[in-house]
Inverse folding.
């Protein structure tokens, strides 16, 4: 089954001013600058999603200076569909711009049946990246991640495989996702001993999920590792979306795998409402303030957003227009979050 493709678009020519307004941040102690807003293809790029809309989102992102597109082997649905969709769009629109793009993929969660299609073994990581490259129709990814720590595979095997894939030219940089502070420090040391630097860590991080502040950000800063925060809006909770009920196109209604109606409690909405009032006083949407709040810490290289509409992407990019917080604002946010 192919993603729905019903509307023809004119040939794509990237905007000539695409780098004029986007803000970029150096990724750790590397030579790479990443846009402070990156685009994730976790949702909305599966086989049942609208192909034309997907193309429009990616075109708008690049025209606005977003050079980093983030994927994983099992993004869909079904597994692999997002990479297939991206591969089709890449061939139609972006192949002439390959050297201007940072394309990433990951492996670590379930992908195919049996003992070799999950977690962090060398066999799984190598096979997964080969499949990802085939689905996307590219020769290499810029970043390849171990998507999660495998507690049963020696860290040396998982991280050593990342090193080998970089040395083979299938990936330019090595990354990890959702590793603890302790395991991140170990991974960085293993890679350094092998002659490859840990380039980036992709943690879940938002106003409502702050585990990275308990040591991980310090490790990243000390080791010179970049970071890309995912789920910055808590699956849409940190927007005004749920303040007046449950929209039919919302994630809590359409896709209960990651967010259910039961999770959006009255107490949670009280906090969201108070934060929304603060954002309005700052001249921002709540989504913009939530993204800006993450980027106030320069150890956060970029924030990874996922959108279903071009208008959401444009709104997210608008967060970069106001990244400053007064001490009073920061204290007020803490007070709201700790209620």
């Amino acid at each position: 089954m192919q993603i729905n493709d019903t509307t023809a678009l004119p040939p794509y020519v990237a905007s000539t001013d695409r780098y004029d307004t986007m803000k970029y941040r150096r990724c750790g102690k590397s030579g790479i600058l990443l846009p402070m807003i990156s685009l994730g293809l976790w949702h909305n790029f599966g086989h049942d999603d609208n192909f034309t809309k997907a193309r429009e989102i990616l075109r708008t992102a690049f025209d606005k200076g977003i050079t980093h597109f983030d994927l994983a082997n099992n993004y869909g649905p079904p597994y692999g569909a997002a990479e297939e969709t991206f591969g089709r769009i890449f061939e139609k629109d972006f192949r002439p711009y390959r050297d201007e793009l940072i394309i990433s993929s990951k492996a670590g969660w379930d992908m195919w049946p049996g003992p070799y299609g999950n977690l962090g073994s060398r066999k799984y990581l190598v096979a997964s990246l080969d499949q990802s490259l085939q689905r996307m129709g590219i020769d290499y990814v810029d970043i390849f991640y171990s998507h999660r720590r495998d507690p049963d595979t020696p860290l040396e095997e998982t991280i050593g495989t990342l090193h080998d894939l970089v040395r083979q030219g299938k990936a330019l940089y090595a990354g990890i996702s959702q590793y603890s502070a302790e395991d991140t420090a170990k991974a960085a040391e293993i890679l350094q001993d092998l002659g490859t630097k840990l380039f980036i860590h992709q943690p879940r991080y938002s106003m409502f999920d702050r585990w990275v502040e308990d040591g991980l950000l310090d490790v990243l800063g000390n080791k010179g590792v970049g970071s890309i925060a995912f789920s910055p809006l808590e699956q849409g909770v940190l927007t005004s979306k749920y303040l007046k009920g449950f929209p039919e196109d919302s994630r809590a209604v359409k896709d209960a795998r990651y967010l259910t109606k039961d999770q959006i409690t009255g107490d949670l909405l009280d906090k969201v409402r108070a934060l929304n009032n603060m954002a309005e006083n700052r001249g921002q949407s709540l989504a913009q303030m939530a993204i800006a709040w993450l980027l106030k810490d320069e150890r956060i290289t970029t924030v990874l957003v996922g959108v279903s509409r071009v208008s959401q992407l444009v709104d997210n990019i608008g967060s970069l227009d106001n990244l400053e917080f007064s001490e009073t604002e920061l204290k007020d946010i803490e007070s709201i979050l700790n209620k």
